[in-house]
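Lab meeting notes turned into a lecture example. A postdoc, R.K., suggested we walk through two folding results consecutively so the class can see how the record format repeats. The first protein's sequence and structure tokens come next.
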Amino acid sequence: MPLSEQQILNMKVKRKKILEAATYLFATEGYGGTTIKKVSEAATVSFGSVFTYFKDKEELFYTVVVEPLEDFSKQMLAFDEHAENPLDELKRMITNHIKIFSEINHYLQLVVQDIGQHERFRESFEKLDAFHDEFRGKVSVLVKNGQQKGLLEKQDSLIVATLYTSLLIGFRLNSTDKRYSDISEKVALSTLNIFGPIIK
């Protein structure tokens, strides 16, 4: 007998609660400190319910890292690397990225865990690494665009893109939510400098 619409909705809600609880626990207690029992208690579902959706803790961790990546990727890649005015596009891109990073915390902690233990979390790391390569590549093209138009200093565009991604992650991890919002506009202005804008 097929499931009713209400049953399907209930299952989606329960799965979402499990993922939210798991994201928080993996971020705050680490992979080793998180158990299925803790996740079920935090999500207020039965222990067995977790296994309805996820085979084991490893699959649950993979899901909380990889599933949000599609939406995150779309947001992060929403800039025009071939913009007519690359300097203006860089400013827009930086402001947007800082806003995105200001709204994530626990997810970013998961990403850092995954990268730090990439041999353990090989499959999810491959997804993160592929996104990182795509992102750096697109930023690099925008930088080259600015250099060709004489708006940015000549330097290795891929290195600049790598410094940029490192800055975003490092700044967010070193800031509380309040401290981040208080200085984010100043950070956006200073971040532009790593791209080497030429003052005329």
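The second example is placed directly after the first for contrast:
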Amino acid sequence: MDLVGACSAFVYVSERGSFTLGAAAARIPQPVASRRIAALERHLGGRLFDRSTRRAALTPFGRDLLPSARRLIALAEAMEHDAERARLAPLRLAVPDVCGTRELALLGAAALRRGIHLDLHPAPPSERDDLLRTRQVRACTAAVPADAAVWTVPLGLAARAEPRAAAVHLETLRTGRGDVEERRRVWIQPEDDVPHVRDRVRRLGASVGLAPAQIAVAPAYTAAAAQVLDSADLLLCSAVQAGELGLHWRPAGGIDPVRGYAVAAADGGDAERIERGLGDGLARCLGAAGDEAGTDAGGAGVRG
């Protein structure tokens, strides 16, 4: 039986002193109220109302149970309120801090259409992991190797001057002992300061004879971009980022660095809901969706 519905009818009828008025207050037909109260009496094993009078008067048994019925209704209402609040509670999601404002706003709008209120926290990879570990967010877009990724973003090398070759090879940055020319560097931004990207680039640089200082990790994306915009240095980045900065982008010869992403969450249900329901919007934020980007910042095909 519907215990809460029956208790509600019981309370309303007792307060109004009438089955008809009580049913109207409960917004149910009078026969339904009568059936629910009769079912409740059978369930509890005693009469709640004295039906020998025209007025719906409580029996001693009914008076004793009325406070409990009111408490049950109050608890049911509190539970419904808590459930509504839980449904509307923001889902805190840590995302890469290289995501564009417009793309994040579109992701938030897409989530709202699905009844999900996103609270987005842009942060670099290690901070995203810490936010999830300390339960400051419910989920994060974790940086993972390509073979474990849901979304991948190819990386290459971007420079202020347009390279002549179709790909940039790290050995072209090597200088001889007698060279007085300043050594060109490859700048790694915080988003790519993860072992499966950073270490591969460093190993390749060492294998072709680059000095350790020629593979540098910048403290911030803007700091790395500033170094490249003011020198002949190179930036390890996506084609989309190169387009935003007005740089010329080429694949990195001899290596195919890739950003890999997957949703990590304390609750597997959150991860599945984000990946399935918001996958397209998240892919756009990460730069893993859309047409293939071109190779020149000033040319067609580069998404800005």
